Amino acid sequence: MFGTPTYQAVFFLVAVLSLIFIFLLGYTFWTRTKNKYWNRYGRKFKDMFTPLIFDYVDSARKSNDADAVVKKVTRRIQDIELFIDLVDNMTEILSGDDRQKLRWLINNPRIEHYYRKKLNSTRRGDQLLACVYYAKSGVVELKVAVELFELCSSKNIKVAFGAAKALQSSTNHEMRFYALKDFFLRKDATELMIGELLHLFHHNSNPIYQTSDQSLKQLLLDKNIRKERKEIVIKYISHHNFYEYSTFLHQYLQKILYRPDNKSLIKHLIAAIGVLRVEEAALLVRNYAVYPDPDLRVCCVEALNQLGGEENLLFITTMLLDIEFDVRKRIIQTLVQDPDDGHLLLEKFMLTHLKFITKIWSSDLQSHDMFVIVNKLQSITQGIRIASANKKQHLKSTRP
Amino acid sequence: MIEIIEWLIISYFLTLNSVYLLLVVGSLIYIRRQMQQSDVVKPTALFKSGIYKTISILVPAYNEAENIIESIESLLRLEYPEYEIIVINDGSSDDTISRLTKHFNLEPTELFYKESISHEPIKAIYTSPEIPNFTVIDKENGGKSDALNAGINVSDFDLICSIDADSILEQDVLKKLIQTFVRYKDTVAAGGIVRVINGCKIRNREIEEIHVPDGFFARLQSVEYLRAFLFGRVGWDYLKSLLIISGAFGIFDRKAIVEIGGYLTNSVGEDIELIIRLHSHFLREKKPYNIRFLPEPICWTEVPTDYKSLRNQRNRWHRGLADSLWRHKYMLFNPTYGRLGMLVLPFFLVFELFGPIIILLSYLYIGILFMIPGYADVGFVTLFFAVSILYGMVVSLISVLAEEVAYKTYTSTKDILVLTAYSFIENLGYRQLHSIWQVSGIVDFIRGNTSWGNMKREGFKVHPESETARE
């Protein structure tokens, strides 16, 4: 049954095995030796250029002074990359004028010219290198910006993201906003990319804060931008405590209709309203606090707690008999932690309900529903006791 | 008839090794693509834009007095903005709890939580006044799954991360894995690469140098981990059909776990069972979900180095697989469960569960052929050894090559040479022995054995002179 083809198969497998074996050994030795060589070369390069750059920083007066140092770097890709990395690392330890002098090195026409060529290349790797360079050096020329915008619409998400990041280093706000918005509209962009780009956009726009403020609003109002991405913008606003958005977020929440596809967006808005303490939105949050979605109710309790005030706390107390454990737990924690009237409200709640239970117990109205309420009240009592004890313990341990 | 049997045997081995080869090669391409992506996207953006999730790390501990303090100290150093550690002392008979109490100045406390998943009674809960994100639960013994269920109940965060007390995590493990949850919406579980720690140089419970172990069995397992646990799982993930997230390390959406009722306490393969149940639940409910595998080394675990412990471990793993497939047999060839029910689970049934039986029967068949004069067909025997052993060697060797191309994890060239040698040796005896352990696992499963078996552990104690993990 098994004749010549058998031996052919065996021979084939042995040949494949031998080839892989030889390739594996060759690859291992070659790549490891190559890595060792480049590591050694990198160290030597650093040893040679670090003192040169420090001398340059001490003596440089104008941007042309960078020419002397840059001329010493050969036109090899490795050397230029090493040089940029070195300058980049030094930027982290130097400040003020010295940092500006280091920028002269990175922005030197010789280096810029080199990367401009890479930007015009059709090779993806070259384009990415150029994007990384312009993200560091800043996009000054319009021509470069046009090239980068072209790359922004690349089918390759990596190149497009690199170009959008590079454009965030421009001083032209409109340019940066369009790059950001274009990227927000891409279907293949991940939330990680969106988050990073948003941070770069905002972080780099400190001097033009007011205009950037308007831009984030535009992103939220754009109907073509997906809701998950808008949620990232809202989270970003609350994470960085951008109080100037308070009124806008309130108005935005007012405009949104409660629909299953809007639930998550609404939760994000309510959470942000709590963090930013948008007191005028309290009524709206209280309205949402009675909606059937338990996560939304927990979110509202947290927001109302952050907003504070007697009215909000009183409202939270009325929710203590909520069907969901998580909601009840959050309310107890909120009220116990409240330094003012929280414990009084809890006490009042318990007294009212204990009286009610005693009445029911002594009467003939006992039913299954009553048992449920009694159990819930027992759980609440236990929760209050535990939360209060933990608070006391915490205070004791933090006291000097 | 004989011809049909022989062709079936050959086809079986050919299919098995070809699938593994495809998984390894496919995953290598996938990993390269992932790595290129990670060059551009910086994970720190997550924390700057506030889109991360909070994580509770659950550490079930049973008689872990030797390792527990170092383990927790290491976990407290993880790089992540918002996480808590919950140690669950599962009725240890050693001094695990007293060591924890003494070292971290723990004080008894009470926590207000809902027992969404049932578990053995909790004796006490401790917290540390100095470390606010650290809680210890002392409970009656109920097994690892039971301990994890107690931890899930007490946890208040978005995600839960279950780890073994004897594992070492990379410092940025949470930062890496959280990306999966952000990138793929509706992710309910994510795992990462678990690697062999034996042989690595450790300082302050951090891996300083990565080497292959010295022991024979540990080295064999290093190759095995590369082939099956690394590239195998990446391949299944690529096909969106991941069935296992290692019990040594995994992150889960807390609500999803509570929704399916937590870990099963009477299963020895709690990790695979949980993942199959997650698939089953979300597919049945037609809810969108993702179960992903991050192809980056994130968790280091000690592998058994002695024959008996290894045998017990593999026996248990196979019992776990049998148990999980048996519990979820309704999914097999059921179109409701899509690709998983029609392709992946049947593959696991035929090639993973029954594979060892077929392998051993094939060897038995060849033995019988040689014993009956005139029946032995040299051509068949040669082809059999070619497709089972030679092809197996090709797959193992490609796994080592893939590791070298993708990660270059091992520090020296010598390590790669050792792995190369063991990818040959592995196929000459160890895999056959492994099949015997697996078959005994199936027998034990049928007998109803649910014990975990003994596993001898050396721990991460480091010698003052040389800080190499003892084997």
Descriptive tags:
heterodimer; A: 400 residues; 0% strand; elongated; B: 471 residues; alpha/beta; Spore Coat Polysaccharide Biosynthesis Protein SpsA, Chain A; 2 domains; ten-stranded mixed beta sheet; two-stranded antiparallel ribbon; 12 strands; 52% helix; disordered C terminus
What is this entry, summarized?
The complex is a heterodimer of chains A (400) and B (471). Chain A has 400 residues and is an all-alpha fold.
Structure description:
The complex is a heterodimer of chains A (400) and B (471). With 400 residues, chain A is mostly helical. Helix content of chain A is 77%, strand content 0%. By secondary structure, chain B is α/β, with parallel strands linked by helices. Chain B folds into two domains: 2-15 and 347-447, no CATH class; 46-341, Alpha-Beta Complex (Spore Coat Polysaccharide Biosynthesis Protein SpsA, Chain A). Helix content of chain B is 52%, strand content 15%. Chain B has helices at 2-40, 44-48, 68-76, 96-103, 144-154, 173-183, 216-238, 254-259, 270-284, 307-327, 338-353, 355-371, 378-406, 413-447; strands at residues 55-61, 83-90, 107-109, 122-127, 134-139, 159-163, 167-169, 187-196, 201-203, 206-209, 249-253, 290-301. In chain B, the strands form two sheets. In chain B, strands 3-4-5-2-1-6-11-8-12-7 form a ten-stranded mixed β-sheet, sandwiched between helices. Chain B has a two-stranded antiparallel ribbon with strand order 9-10. At the A-B interface, helix 1, helix 8, helix 10, helix 12 and helix 18 of A face helix 1, helix 2, helix 6, helix 13 and helix 14 of B.
Strand content of chain B: 15-25%
Q: Give average pLDDT of chain B, whole number.
A: 87
Q: Please report the number of helical segments of chain B.
A: 14
Low-pLDDT windows of residues of chain B:
463-471
